[in-house]
Amino acid sequence: MIKKFLAVLACAALVMGVTGCSKDNGGNAGSDVTTYKVGVAIYKYDDTFMTQYREELANYFKSLETDTVKYEVNVMDGKGDQGEQTNQINNFITGGYDVIIANLVQPTAASVVSAAAAEQDIPVVYINREPEAADLEAYPGKSTYVGADARQSGTYQGEIIAALPDHGDINGDGKVSYVMLVGDPDNVDAKYRTEFSIKAMEDAGYTMEKLVEQRGDWDKAKGQQITADALSQYGEQIEVIFANNDDMALGAVQALKDAERTVGEDVYLVGVDALAECVELVNNGGMTGTVLNDHVGQSHAAVDAAIAALNGEELEQYYWVDYVKVVKK
Ligand code: GAL
């Protein structure tokens, strides 16, 4: 009993950052406590959505701990640099980690990451930036992608505008003139949201006129700059701003304010993520709508997949979490 208590204490110290026992090193031989080492590689910390995602991921691991199972979760900031992130992941692999959760800077790196992990038989759960199917197939049952289908989020953005009384055609000239704030090409979310928001409008029978489509790297300041430039070039002509995410939409909110444009009256604005600040704006009319990118559902699904793999279960190739439309209550 005392022995077990000591082992629990030792592992609690480990969870608090002190190295020690793990399932593999036999450091707690004779005790009933197993500590799994979980390596989490985030593409960069400076991203609002991924910050809430990684915080929920760590909290959820913590909540699943028991007297006999602990998770030592080590989260790393890839700083938007694939070289740096690959080193971090290699350190997980050589450091005897039991499972890796990877939000790759460049999803094409999945082939290298999976190959290195496979050599040590370490399962990999990819999140947020979807790798090629072939890269998942190359490490079957031991690698998976947990995410949301970005086509759905784009479609929802288009449907939110299509459902408005004027369907986004504020000036009644028979076409919807828009600005597209694009995320970054390393995440297929950007490509699909750009494509499917417009497709949903066209499928509903509306003519679309693209005024500006520019890359803003999911970033608020860039969203603001692109919108400000678009407003000075096209002014009143702009009827709808589609932002691939809420951070860029928040930048657009600021630029629209500076240009004395009023959302819901002379312009519409939709984002994706449903950041708390944006849900509030949607409810008070400051944004037309957003789409919930369910970081809770996705982080929990990622952790559940990681734990299934730790328990020796075969992983499916994909685990999908739905987006949800968010409009004024
Ligand atoms: C998207 C999200 C963006 C950004 C991006 C990072 O799913 O909507 O806000 O976090 O992932 O890859």
Distance from first to last alpha carbon: 55 Å
Order of helices and strands: HEHEHEHEHEHEHEHEHEHEHEE
Quaternary status = single chain
Give the mean pLDDT: 92
Poorly predicted tracts of residues: 1-29
Strands, total number: 12
Quickly count the helices.
11
How would you sum up the global shape? elongated
Rounded radius of gyration (Å): 23 Å
Q: What proportion of the residues is helical, as a percent range?
A: 40-55%
Offer a few descriptive terms.
disordered N terminus, alpha/beta, binds beta-D-galactopyranose
Compact summary:
The protein is of the alpha/beta class and 329 residues long. The chain has helices spanning 2-15, 48-63, 82-94, 110-119, 133-137, 150-162, 188-203, 220-234, 246-258, 276-284, 295-310, and strands at 34-42, 69-77, 99-102, 124-127, 143-147, 176-182, 208-215, 240-243, 268-270, 290-292, 318-320, 324-326. It is built from 11 helices and 12 strands.
What would your notes on this structure say?
The structure is a single chain. By secondary structure, this protein is an alpha/beta fold. Helix content is 43%, strand content 19%. It contains eleven helices and twelve strands. It has helices at residues 2-15, 48-63, 82-94, 110-119, 133-137, 150-162, 188-203, 220-234, 246-258, 276-284, 295-310; strands at 34-42, 69-77, 99-102, 124-127, 143-147, 176-182, 208-215, 240-243, 268-270, 290-292, 318-320, 324-326. The strands form three sheets. Strands 2-1-3-4-5-11 form a six-stranded parallel sheet, sandwiched between helices. Helix 6 (150-162) runs parallel beside helix 7. The radius of gyration is 23 Å and the shape is elongated. The relative contact order is 0.12. Residues 1-29 have low confidence and may be disordered. Bound molecules: beta-D-galactopyranose. Beta-D-galactopyranose (GAL) binds at residues 43, 47, 49-50, 128-129, 187, 189, 218, 245, 247, 272-273, 293.
